[in-house]
Amino acid sequence: MQQQLIRLEERRRYPRVEVAWDVAVGWGPRFEWRGEIVSLGPFGLKVRLGEKDPGPSVGTEVRLQFRAPNGKHPLSIKGIVWRVDPDGLAIALVKLSIDEFYRLKSLVDTLLAEPA
């Protein structure tokens, strides 16, 4: 039997960087969950929730509040739960202002350029 090499094409529009940053994830009138951002890009991120409950379902609009370790001002951005994985929520970022997008992109670019 011949083995076939399968290459998965990167479907993301921009690379992501692995991080471990605290985040508040909320929907509705108040923030409900505390978690950790484990992967960050200017178009989306992955959040691991610390709660035992499943959290928001696919399609739920959420608000994320976090501060980059070297950031002076916290970010407060909106996203939609794109996928619920065993290791966290994949969230597509939506309704970003131009400033928010470039702030995230700059942050990701800086982290990608740092030596491992």
Q: What topology emerges from the helices and strands here?
A:
Layout (H helix, E strand, L loop, with lengths): L16 E11 L2 E11 L3 E6 L11 E6 L8 E11 L2 E7 L3 H16 L3
Antiparallel strand pairs: 1-2, 1-4, 2-3, 3-6, 4-5, 5-6
Please provide a written account of the structure:
This protein is mainly beta and about 120 residues long. It has a single domain (about 15-110), classed as predicted glycosyltransferase like domains (Thrombin, subunit H). About 15% of the residues lie in helices and about 45% in strands. It is built from 1 helix and 6 strands. It has one helix at about 100-115; strands at about 15-25, 30-40, 45-50, 60-65, 75-85, 90-95. The protein has a 6-stranded antiparallel β-barrel. β5 and β6 (about 90-95) form a beta hairpin. The protein is globular, with a radius of gyration of 15 Å. The N and C termini lie far apart (about 40 Å). Residues about 1-10 have low confidence and may be disordered.
